Automatic annotation (TrEMBL):
This is dTDP-4-dehydrorhamnose 3,5-epimerase family protein. InterPro entries: RmlC-like (IPR000888), RmlC-like_jellyroll (IPR014710), RmlC_Cupin_sf (IPR011051). The keyword Isomerase applies. Keywords: Isomerase. It holds the Pfam family dTDP_sugar_isom. PANTHER family: DTDP-6-DEOXY-D-GLUCOSE-3,5 EPIMERASE, THYMIDINE DIPHOSPHO-4-KETO-RHAMNOSE 3,5-EPIMERASE.
Length: 188
């Protein structure tokens, strides 16, 4: 497994497994504590695993957590997604930086997203399962959502939106969220 820094988002990493492929399919390690530790992350910090299933065109996000924030490892375990990260840490050298990834069940790449970054994705295939490994228990009172189509972010979503939650449809702009929150709380 190889870890690569994400230049557009300070502290973000892309973990690429080395699959063993044969006539049966493939086998690969999707999490390796030693590799995670080698880039300065605590592998024992992750306390919750979750999974979402989406159909083609479903958009989830852009989400982040207030308070202490939430770091996470994100992987598309089946299908393919267009994944988006936005750095909202005011003291970060990549503040307001954006990064886009295609994550898929074929590659099993995992993206580490630091606390204080917004995250969202769109399913590109008929079914897309997205797995999350999160460093804090979920508290719905800390959920923050930013409009997926905010012109200041100009995210190039690859497909028309087939479906999204009511919360995501009604999300405020980035400017409104920045006015409402003291995002410095999101930094660790």
């Amino acid at each position: 497994m190889k870890a690569t820094e994400v230049p557009a988002i300070a502290g973000a990493y892309l973990f690429e497994p080395t699959p063993y492929v044969d006539e049966r399919g493939f086998f690969c390690r999707t999490f390796d504590a030693d590799v995670v530790r080698s880039v300065g992350l605590d592998p024992d910090a992750f306390v919750q695993d979750s999974v979402s299933r989406s159909v083609r065109g479903v958009l989830r996000g852009l989400h982040l957590r207030s308070g202490a924030g939430e770091a996470k490892l994100v992987r598309c375990s089946y299908g393919e997604i267009f994944d988006v990260v936005v750095d909202l840490r005011p003291d970060s050298p990549t503040y307001l930086g954006r990064a886009f990834f295609e994550l898929s069940g074929e590659t099993q790449k995992t993206l580490y997203i630091p606390a204080g970054c917004a995250h969202g994705f769109q399913a590109l295939t008929g079914t897309a399962d997205t797995s999350y490994r999160i460093d804090r228990p979920h508290d719905p009172a800390e959920d923050v959502t930013i409009a997926h189509d905010d012109p200041d972010l100009a995210v190039p979503w690859p497909l028309p939106v087939a479906s999204m939650s009511q919360r995501d449809r009604e999300a405020p702009s980035l400017a409104e969220v920045l006015k409402q929150l003291d995002l410095k709380q999101l930094e660790r």
